[in-house]
Automatic annotation (TrEMBL):
<feature type="domain" description="PA">
    <location>
        <begin position="660"/>
        <end position="743"/>
    </location>
</feature>
<dbReference type="Pfam" id="PF01532">
    <property type="entry name" value="Glyco_hydro_47"/>
</dbReference>
<dbReference type="GO" id="GO:0005975">
    <property type="term" value="P:carbohydrate metabolic process"/>
</dbReference>
<comment type="similarity">
    <text>Belongs to the glycosyl hydrolase 47 family.</text>
</comment>
<feature type="active site" description="Proton donor">
    <location>
        <position position="136"/>
    </location>
</feature>
<dbReference type="GO" id="GO:0016020">
    <property type="term" value="C:membrane"/>
</dbReference>
<dbReference type="Pfam" id="PF02225">
    <property type="entry name" value="PA"/>
</dbReference>
<dbReference type="InterPro" id="IPR003137">
    <property type="entry name" value="PA_domain"/>
</dbReference>
<keyword id="KW-0106">Calcium</keyword>
<feature type="signal peptide">
    <location>
        <begin position="1"/>
        <end position="28"/>
    </location>
</feature>
<dbReference type="GO" id="GO:0005509">
    <property type="term" value="F:calcium ion binding"/>
</dbReference>
<keyword id="KW-0732">Signal</keyword>
<dbReference type="InterPro" id="IPR012341">
    <property type="entry name" value="6hp_glycosidase-like_sf"/>
</dbReference>
<protein>
    <recommendedName>
        <fullName>alpha-1,2-Mannosidase</fullName>
        <ecNumber>3.2.1.-</ecNumber>
    </recommendedName>
</protein>
<dbReference type="GO" id="GO:0004571">
    <property type="term" value="F:mannosyl-oligosaccharide 1,2-alpha-mannosidase activity"/>
</dbReference>
<keyword id="KW-0378">Hydrolase</keyword>
<dbReference type="GO" id="GO:0044322">
    <property type="term" value="C:endoplasmic reticulum quality control compartment"/>
</dbReference>
């Protein structure tokens, strides 16, 4: 399309991409050739589609702004129920007819074109008390009037028709232009987003409005400049240039990126997301097209700067992901929107065909997967927002790519889009937007751009140049698909002041970056199954598959990090996997990350399809304080594999612990498990893998106990354990939270032949009494700690409680607080008298008790001195410098001092085995939690929300976990730290 004629505009305006655009055989033998007969058939079908919609509008809606295709009625501003901001494009000025005028000329229907112009002149008025979008009114109505005016004069000169026309449309355009001018009365000169066509900004709603989008303010220059150059009144172009100049000043000077929403008075950015889609798209488009249409070198310089920034920060392979404009290496969202589909077309105009082919191919695959390109879709190509209002941007880029390459592949793309429109959106009264691509549900909506752009580009794609009465080489398409003549470059006396610090006049500033021998098929081939099936490039050997992945495996976490996959913890305990190309270690790793994400999606779908199982129950007997046995029934989570017991079904047998306890590897003493209900611990591998291990050993049932400390069904929702799609488990397997499992393990420790029954949970089951008050308090305690961490600026990495004292461990200090606990006797008595240390302890306690908040901050450096000097610890312990151990010791010392009967009563107490055991356990807990926190702080996982969960004190090998991975159904550990430490 853009094979410019130097006779029309000054040679300095040309971007030297003509060699690319004349490349007529850039396709390979794999591409199916489309015969001229089929092309003509599709061209005529596209023509019929336009007229089906156009006539439905004219017969059922005109003079309304839009047609409601399901209601078969017109949509009027203020009369039809409001749709919110969507209705800002309406103004009771026959929007669809004005927007469609030049499409009639493209189709060659000059008779209807003339009739439509007479209707517009006769019926349309802009003297309406309505609030409209400045951006939408400019590109749709002002652009439509100007394009129609230019085409009438073109036809008068070339076809000697419509000689009655005397510039009426231009007069209407000037009237509309003056009605839009009040919007530019801002401190910065950047226009308000809305204006009243009759009263300007004279309303409280408009005067107090401050925000507009970058595209809204930066997509006015073409129409306003054309209006000035056609009428000879420079005010419109001056206002538009001023707005563009101010926007350029607002760019981030380090990245050359723009935000998406700004304050028109202060010039501050309101939203700092930067991308090429919604809110910013046509600003970039108009930077380049303003250079082409107006001949201003500053706009070429700006576009090149912006384009380089986009390709450096936002382009991630074929995908275009929003980033923070001030932190361009950080993605601001994990989805893309449909409006970015214009970008490959703009890249064709720029001459950068290779990335244009890649992004277009990605979009086409998304379109094929969902029948249409959803309004927003995620980085793993799932639907984020399922609406599709029959947008034209993808067809626009398809048309430009075909014009540049003559590759028949793009004719097949257009054919696919055409057939989808016909099959899913055609209704008796026009074409209806798709409300949800999942269901195909239609929406009572047909925007004016469907006629102005969608059907126009579809027709042009299948038409030959000789089929058209216009020479499109003489025109430039606006963002609304309206035609403005390139001859406008010579129609101005307006002088522009150079505001850019530097104009790029280097050798490559006006040339295309690509080779002349680009074959689009060779670029598309590696992306053949990017969205469905396999990765863009064939991988010789997979490093990790989704079915192999274990979130508790540190090596697996490192591998997915290398693939560019981040784990984000959600508030409800689940996690989200986010894949970004830019975060991957290499291109091949990024490609494997795509495949990994696709596999995870399929696993999630499989889990979602599994039927819900009934809650299960575990019943056993436990001795009370008097030695009598009491039957306990606890609620157990079901599984999506194995046998789900219902009604009176049950399994009763003796229980035994698996060895190893997590049962992820071959079991020791497997012969002892035969006929038993085997207890295993959560972690290290999938639930179903544990079930296979114990089933192969002959178990008749399985109980998987949680590894999260203090978890309970009173504070954690019950969940069903997921399988992997293989139905090979024939025994019942259930899940117990920690508090319930502790009762079972306690009973087993006192009775090695303990019998347990697994059955369906009954409504009248007797449960072990839960401490609801304690669980609520625990929630409150966690919430308060999170609040303090957020608002005090002090981040505590661990908490230690001993007796009456509690310590929150920070980076460089510990916070000690006091609360009397009469029932607590956890402290280590001292065996010798140290009067000096006793006085120090008294001073610390006095400082805590006399404080308003009853707390004291002790620097870790001072704590270390106390510990090294007074603890009597071994040389090996002193070398560890473990702040949790030191804190535990200090709290024990404070408890000793606080519980002395008299200040001068130094009692020597012998160390009992029980007290020694308790002290050892507290020290063990401190060591483990501190070690884990160090691992969390230095983890490969990017999340900041890791939470210490607990340990198992029943075994020499102690396991602590942090956080949880809870996918659609399955839960496992994000990080596991094993420590075998003898104290």
């Amino acid at each position: 399309m853009y094979r410019f004629s130097s006779s029309l505009i000054n040679q300095s305006l040309l971007i030297l991409c003509t060699a690319l655009l004349f490349c007529k055989r850039c396709y390979c033998e794999e591409t199916k050739f489309m015969s001229r007969e089929e092309r003509l058939q599709l061209r005529e079908e596209a023509r019929d589609m336009f007229y089906h919609a156009y006539r439905a509008y004219m017969e059922n809606a005109y003079p309304a702004d839009e047609l409601m295709p399901l209601s078969c009625a017109g949509r009027y501003k203020g009369l039809t129920p409001s749709r919110g901001d969507i209705d800002d494009s309406l103004g009771n000025f026959s929007l669809t007819l004005i927007d469609s005028l030049d499409t009639l000329v493209v189709l060659g229907d000059l008779e209807e074109f003339e009739h439509a112009i007479r209707l517009v002149i006769k019926d349309v008025s802009f003297d309406n008390d309505v609030i409209v979008s400045v951006f939408e009114t400019n590109i749709r109505v002002l652009g439509g009037l100007l394009s129609a005016h230019v085409l009438v004069e073109y036809l008068q000169q070339h076809a000697d028709i419509m000689l009655w026309y005397g510039g009426e449309l231009l007069t209407m355009a000037k009237d509309l232009g003056y009605r839009l001018l009040p919007a530019f009365n801002t401190t910065t000169g950047i226009p308000h987003s809305r204006v009243n066509l009759k009263y300007g900004l004279k309303s409280d709603r408009l005067e107090t409005a401050r925000e507009t989008c970058t595209a809204c303010a930066g997509s006015i220059i073409l129409e306003m400049a054309a209006l000035s150059r056609l009428t000879g009144e420079p005010i419109f172009e001056e206002k538009a240039h001023k707005a563009m100049d101010e926007l350029w000043k607002m760019r981030n000077r380090g990245s050359d990126l723009m935000g998406t929403v700004l304050n028109v008075h202060s010039g501050d950015w309101v939203r700092k997301d930067s991308g090429v889609g919604a809110g910013i798209d046509s600003y970039y488009e108009y930077c380049l097209k303003a250079y082409i249409l107006l001949g201003d070198d500053q706009y070429l310089n700006r576009f090149n700067r912006h384009y380089n920034a986009v390709m450096k920060y936002i382009s991630q392979g074929p995908m275009l992901l929003d980033v923070h404009m001030h932190r361009p290496h950080t993605n601001s969202r994990n989805y893309m929107d449909a409006l970015l589909a214009f970008w490959p077309g703009l890249q064709v105009l720029k001459g950068d065909l290779k990335p244009a082919v890649e992004t277009h191919e990605m979009l086409y695959q998304v379109m094929q997967r969902h029948k249409f390109i959803p309004e927003a879709f995620t980085t793993d190509f799932q639907v984020h927002w399922g609406n599709h209002p029959l947008r034209p941007e993808f067809l626009e880029s398809t048309y430009f790519l075909y014009t540049a390459t003559n590759d028949p592949y793009y004719l097949e793309v257009g054919k696919t889009v055409l057939k989808s429109l016909q099959k899913y959106t055609r209704v008796p009264c026009g074409y209806a937007a798709v409300n949800d691509v999942h269901t195909g549900k239609q929406e009572d909506r047909m925007d004016s751009f469907v006629l102005a752009e969608t059907f126009k580009y579809l027709y042009l794609l299948f038409a030959d140049p000789e089929d058209l009465i216009l020479n499109l080489e003489e025109f430039l398409f606006t963002t609304e698909g309206h035609l403005l003549p390139l001859t406008l470059a010579s129609h101005t006396n307006l002088s522009r002041t150079l505001i850019d610090n530097e104009i790029d006049d280097s050798e490559f500033a006006r040339t295309c970056p690509n080779s002349k021998k680009l074959f689009p098929a060779s670029v598309r081939k590696p992306l053949k199954n990017m969205v469905d099936g396999v990765c863009p490039r064939r991988l010789t050997k997979r490093k990790l598959t989704a079915t192999e992945f274990s979130a508790s495996n540190l090596n697996h976490l490192r591998l997915i990090k290398d693939m560019g996959i981040n784990i984000i913890a959600l508030n409800d305990g689940r996690v989200q996997l986010l894949h970004t190309f830019s975060s991957a270690r290499s291109t091949s790793d990024a490609e494997e990350g795509l495949l990994f994400m696709q596999e995870m999606v399929e696993l999630s779908k499989l889990q979602a399809q599994q039927t819900e199982s009934s809650p299960q129950a575990v019943t056993f007997a436990i001795k009370d304080g008097t030695g009598n046995k009491k039957t306990i029934t606890v609620q157990a989570g079901p599984s999506h594999f194995g046998v789900s017991l219902k009604n009176n079904q049950k399994v009763t047998s003796q229980t035994i612990l698996a060895d190893p306890f997590r049962a992820c590897t071959d079991l020791k003493f497997a012969d002892k498990l035969k006929g038993k209900i085997v207890i295993v611990e959560r972690g290290d591998c999938m639930f179903v893998n544990k079930a296979r291990q114990i089933q192969n050993a002959g178990a008749v049932g399985g109980i998987i106990v949680d590894n999260t400390p203090d978890s309970s069904n009173t504070i954690t929702p019950l969940f069903s354990m997921s399988g992997d799609g293989t139905d090979d488990i024939k025994i019942p397997v259930v899940f117990l939270f920690t508090q319930d499992a502790s009762k079972l393990l306690l009973a087993l420790s006192t009775d090695t032949k303990l019998e347990v029954t697994i059955s369906e949970l009954k409504n009248d089951s007797e449960f072990w009494p839960s401490n609801e008050e304690e669980s609520v308090f625990q929630k409150l305690k966690v919430s308060v700690q999170e609040f303090l961490n957020k608002h005090t600026g002090i981040v505590f990495t661990d908490t230690v409680v001993v007796g009456d004292f509690r310590a929150n461990i920070g980076i460089d200090k510990i916070q000690i607080s006091y609360k009397q606990n009469k029932d607590s006797d956890i402290y280590v008595p001292e065996a010798t008298t140290n009067l000096q240390w006793s006085q120090i302890r008294k001073g610390l306690i006095k400082s805590i008790l006399h404080s308003e908040t009853q707390e004291l901050y002790v620097p870790i450096s001072i704590l270390r001195i106390y510990y090294q000097t007074l603890s009597g610890a071994s040389a090996e312990d002193l070398r560890k410098f473990d702040v949790t151990i030191q804190t535990t010791w200090l709290l024990q010392q404070l408890n000793i001092e606080n519980r002395r009967k008299k200040d001068d009563d130094l009692v020597e107490v012998g160390e009992t085995p029980e007290l020694a055991k308790e002290a050892k356990l507290e020290q063990l807990k401190a060591i483990l939690e501190s070690t884990l926190q160090y691992e969390v702080d230095n983890a490969a996982s990017p999340t900041d929300d890791l939470v210490i969960h607990g340990e198992d004190k029943t075994k020499p090998e102690v396991i602590i976990t942090a956080d949880r991975l809870d996918g659609t159904e399955q839960k496992s550990d994000v990080k596991t730290k094993k420590i075998a430490d003898e104290l």
